[in-house]
Amino acid sequence: MSHPPSEISPGKRWLILAPAMCLPLLASIFYFVIYSDSVIGQVVYSSTKFFTIIWPLLALCWILKERHRIAPKLLGNWKVHLRALPLGIAVGGLITGIMLILSMTPIWHEVQAGGPAIREKITGLGVLNHYLAFAFFVSVIHSFIEEYYWRWFVYGQLRELVPSWVAHLLAAISFSAHHIIVTTQFFSPALGITFGLLVGVGGWFWSVLYQRQKTLAGAWISHMIVDIALFAYGYQLAGLGG
């Protein structure tokens, strides 16, 4: 995807990218580790999600003065969105297929050891009795918010500054960082870090989809499929099926 030369200074773009890339990691340490299952943690979590929604718009409208680029880049053309879906579904199916294969290997026994911690977290979040509704919200709504934030905004701004492959790498690392904090709370450090890094690999694939398809639709539906699979495994691991 080619871009016309920008008059925005690199320093100003890095100014908006620095908090975007670092804040989710720092916030996750507070809401998932230090103040886990407390009111403070819930406030930090909610504030972080609000930040991910509003910061890209604030940064583009009032700092970079590029509000004219928001609608064309974010909304695009519905025909382009539709054409992106089959490949997105295929990538999502491939990732979930790999997850299924892993669930049939000895590593699954170590994954099962994290079941009690997963159930405890679900209970602490107050969604034990509303798991399916929560899973739907995260898989459909939250996955779009993450694509909007990490692919459209973070990756989209990085590629204005660095070569495309570097932008993919930096965006993927930033995306995986706070997931590593989360996964290491459920699994052993080695397994948690591995899972967190695999999230970054998924983020790489999704930013490549966004770059090539010129729409978030393919990445979003792929992300959605993967999240649905993860919540299905979570349902099983937490023993919610009876």
Which SSEs are present, and which pair or pack?
Layout: H1 10-34, H2 39-63, H3 70-74, H4 78-102, H5 107-112, H6 115-124, H7 131-158, H8 164-183, H9 189-213, H10 217-237
Helix pairs in contact: 1-2, 1-7, 1-8, 4-9, 4-10, 7-8, 7-9, 7-10, 8-9, 9-10
Structural write-up:
With 242 residues, the chain is an all-alpha fold. The protein has one domain (10-237). 79% of the residues lie in helices and 0% in strands. It has helices at 10-34, 39-63, 70-74, 78-102, 107-112, 115-124, 131-158, 164-183, 189-213, 217-237. Helix 1 runs antiparallel to helix 7 (131-158), helix 1 packs parallel to helix 8 and helix 8 packs antiparallel against helix 9 (189-213). The longest helix is centred in the middle third of the chain and has 28 residues, at 131-158. The model is unreliable at 1-5 (pLDDT under 50).
Radius of gyration: 18 Å
Number of domains: 1
Query: Major sheet, described briefly?
Result: none
Q: How would you name the oligomeric state of the polypeptide chains in this document?
A: single chain
Tertiary shape:
globular
Which percent band covers the strand fraction?
under 5%
> Mean of the pLDDT scores?
92
Low-confidence stretches: 1-5
Q: Number of helical segments?
A: 10
**What structural class do helix, strand and pairing data support?**
mainly alpha
Number of extended strands = 0
Tell me the series of helices and strands, N- to C-terminal: HHHHHHHHHH
Distance linking N and C termini: 49 Å
Q: Give the helix proportion (percent range).
A: over 70%
